[in-house]
Amino acid sequence: MRFVIVTGVSGAGKSTALKMLEDAEYFCVDNLPIPLMEKFASMMADSNAEEIQNAGLGVDVRSGQALDELEGVLQRMKQQGYDYEILFLDASDEVLIKRYQETRRNHPLAPRGRVGTGIRLEREKLKFLKNRADYIIDTSQLLTRELREEIEGIFINNRQFDSLMVSIVSFGFKYGIPNDSSLLFDARFLPNPYYLDHLRHLTGENEEVFDYVMSFEAAQVFADKMEDLFRYLIPQYIKEGKTSLVVGIGCTGGRHRSVTLAKELYRRLKGEQGYGLRIEHRDLEK
After folding, report:
1. pTM
2. DSSP secondary structure string for all residues of 102-123
3. Which of 56, 65, 155, 210 could bridge to 21 as Cys pair (CB 3.0-4.6 Å)?
C-alpha cells in the first residue's frame, strides 16, 4: 500500500491534489485529527480490502495547536514501520494573495487581518513539513491539468521527481515584464516579422513565422546559448532545492519572435528527466 500525506500552504491546491488522488482510486481523508493519524495508518496497513490499495491523508493548519504534535507523530510512525510519503503543495506569496482576492476567502490564520500576514505565519508553522517532504510541487504557474499530470506521474506512473518546474513564458515588453520571472531574455534584436505584410497577422505558432525567425543565424546562436545555459543551470537549481523557475522570453508585442524562441527552447529541453517543463504564451492573443 502507498500512503501519501498531502499538505502545503492554503491556496496552493491541496484539496485539488487530494481529489486527484481520489480519482486515481486512493482512499482519501482530509483534515483528520492529528492524534488519530497513527490509528489511521494502522487501519490502512491491516486492511485486506481489495478496494483500498492506496491511501491519502490531508493535513494543514486547520489542525490548530495539534499541528505542533505532528512531528512527533510522524517520527513514531516511522519507528513503527509505517511507510509514508509527504507531498507538499506550495506557491509564491503573490500568487496566493491573488487567489485569495479572486475567491474572496479569508486566510485561516488571518480571518480578519491581512492575507500576507496569514501566509507568513502559515509558512513558519509548516516549515518542518516542507523540510521533510518527499515531493514539493510549486503550483504558481500550473494549470489544473498540469498539476494532474504531475500527480499522476508521481503516484500512478512512479516517475522520478526532483521538484523543479520550469516554465518558459513568452511575453511582450509593451505589456510589462512577468512579475514572477526568475530569468529574462530579450529577443528584440532579431528581425521583426511584424513588418512583413504576409506575416504580420500570424504568430510564432504558425510555421511561416517560426521558420522566418529561425532562418537567421543570430536566432540559432541565441537558442544554442540559451540551451547551453539551462543545461548547466537546471541541475544546480535542483541541487539547491529550487521548486520553480520562470524563464521569460520577450519581444515587442509577444506574438512573433518571443513565441518562436520560447517554442524552440521548449523543444530542445522537452523530454529531459529530473524536472517538469511547461510553456505559456502570455500575450499571444493581444
Report:
1. 0.70
2. HHTPPBTTBSSS-HHHHHHHHH
3. 56
